[in-house]
Amino acid sequence: MEKIRNFCIIAHIDHGKSTLADRLIEQTGTLLKENIHAQVLDDMDLERERGITIKSHALRMEYIYKGEKYILNLVDTPGHVDFSYEVSRAIASSEGAILVVDAAQGIQAQTISNLYLAIENDLEIIPVLNKIDLPAARPDEVKDQIIELIGCDIDDIKEVSAKTGEGIDELLETIIKVVPAPTGNSETPLQALIFDSVFNQYRGVIAYFRIFNGRIKKGDLVKFFNTGQEYEAIEIGYLGIDYKPNNQLEAGEVGYIISGIKTAREVRVGDTITQVINPTKEIIEGFEEAKPMVYAGVYPIETEEFEDLRSALEKLQLNDAALTFQQESSAALGFGFRCGFLGLLHMEIVQERLEREFDMNVITTVPNVNYIVYSKKDEKTEIHNPAELPDIKYISHIEEPVIEAQIFTQAEFLGGIMKLCLDKRGILEKQHFLVGNRVELIFKMPLAEIVFDFYDKLKSVSKGYASFDYQKAGYQTSKLVKLDILLNGERVDALSSLIHEDFAYNLGKRMAEKLKELIPRHQFDIPVQAAIGAKIIARSTIKAVRKDVTAKCYGGDITRKRKLLEKQKKGKKKMKQIGSVNVPQKAFISVLKLDD
Asked: Do 582 and 505 share a structural domain?
């Protein structure tokens, strides 16, 4: 155990985490240089294209230091806020963390939130300044930021270039010196933490774990604590670039287990593995169910592709246990699914994977969050869809989820960011000036206000110089109303939304105007109305296409023309009563993307 080092890499998106992992793999000889491609540990095309890590990865490397062989277990973590639970489990599996900071961009929001997680878990922190070869690098200024943040000495900060490989050898030596060896007892009952799992269509679910106490042998009967399921360890082993089977793993080691599990839901990240015979009495703390934060309806564009969409979502769920879905139907869009996502990035990735991997063209409705509705009898209901909201006369009050948003920016963009957050119903809780001209802002905001386009607007207001992170901060009572859109007197459920009372009139007016432009004219007038309950708050009218029925009258008495026009008027009235309004898909998509 003295020769094992378990560590993770934490950083903000695009600070060079995966590239640094590539250099460590190359330097330790885990992969030959000619076999290395960019982002070795990112195995999805989507991860490589976007330059982000979506799934955590783990890798065992071997390194010779002073004539002795050391085992380095690297757990790569996602950097995005949507995947913070996976990051927390990866951190709990490690004794040390490499804190990567971009020498050009400096400290960013997600760097700090992941750093706090590492400090809470008593990890040894190794600060690393990356991208020192860039012309825009500001090493001295960024070093001051790191010193202010973690209180280390300037000599503790390692300068590297993950692109060129400069400083990597020194970093590997630092890992061996600074990161403590794991503690634990191989003779006590088995106690192992699952920090990730992947699905293989031939072998089932493969769980990645770190052993804290005890040992596991091939063929052992094991139990997963929180699900209560029991399995046989068909295969166990180390996590190299490929799986390396082994007959036994002991305390302090990181490995994988294959038990022929066919359902991803049976393996939960954060669960504890123990043996059926002589189980451990203590489970590893910190387990949470993956709870969706954002909900949206996903519908196939062609209604006959409904079953194909179900099959695609089921296959995606095998690789992504955080995705939840249930069937729903909409009068406007037909049959589809109400899906739950960890956040907006997670939703975007699921959409993109549906298109790429399953060739599915889908419409996604306006994303919304989960609300808690209290009735006048004090009954509590959780709703994920505005259509589920009971009649207003039965509602006592509605609670919506709130977050604590942490924004880092330069002082010159402070005014624009303040205005943006206040317009989104934010309350400023803290403002802190850091080294140089950098500012940290902490706002309390409703989650519903950031799920749509907040991040894009923040980037444009700050010219890209703001970083954003958030934590859940419970629920608060808000004055929310359900805004309905009526076409020819009929509610269109797919366009319903829950919105704050102060913004309802404005949004309703804009949606009515937009639909007037997008819906083609019919043979009869179509009123487009926005309503709150029975009260109409905005209206526009799509005028009828008029056929000139008097064209065949070449002169003669005016009464003949009037008679024809009266007949046409009666026909239009009848058509309006029985006719249906055809709404093109383009209209739905445009209204759902209606810019604030």
From this structure: yes
Cα-flanking dihedrals φ and ψ of residue 73, to 5°?
-100, 110
Q: Which residues contact 16 (CB under 8 A, 6 or more apart)?
A: 100, 102, 130, 131, 162, 163
Distant-in-sequence, close-in-space partners of 461: CB < 8 Å, separation ≥ 6: 413, 416, 417, 420
SS3 (DSSP) at 193: strand
* Full-model pTM: 0.69
Q: In this structure, are residues 274 and 222 in contact, taking their beta carbons and an 8 Å threshold? A: yes
Query: Token digits for 188?
Result: 């006590």
Residues 10 and 121 occupy one common structural domain: yes
How far the first Cα of the chain sits from its last, in Å, is 57
Give the domain CATH number at 452.
3.30.70.240
Q: Helix, strand or coil for residue 370?
A: coil
Sign of CA dihedral 209, 211, 217, 223: negative
Residue of 579 and 306 predicted with greater confidence: 306
Q: How far apart are CA 466 and CA 202, in angstroms?
A: 44
Question: In the prediction, which pLDDT does 451 show?
Answer: 73
Alpha carbon 393 to chain centroid distance? 35
- Give the integer Cα–Cα distance in Å for 63 and 150: 28
CA–chain centroid gap for 303, Å, is 28
Tokens of 367: 């994303």
Model confidence over 496-533: pLDDT tens digits?
778 888 888 888 888 888 888 777 777 777 888 888 88
C-alpha–C-alpha distance, residues 501 and 511, integer Å: 16
Choose the final residue of a domain: 460, 478, 496.
478
Residue 182's nearest CA partner among 98, 96, 246 is 96
Task: Answer yes or no: are the C-beta atoms of 54 and 342 closer than 8 Å.
Answer: no
Determine, yes or no, domain membership for 559.
yes
C-alpha closest to that of 337 among 379, 298, 381: 298
Q: Please name which of 251, 255, 180 lies closest in space to residue 213, comparing C-alpha atoms.
A: 251
Output the CA–CA distances (angstroms, integers) from residue 329 to 301, 354, 495, 594, in the order listed: 13, 20, 13, 23
Run of H or E including 62: strand 57-65
Q: Residue 308 corresponds to which tokens in the numbers above?
A: 């194909």
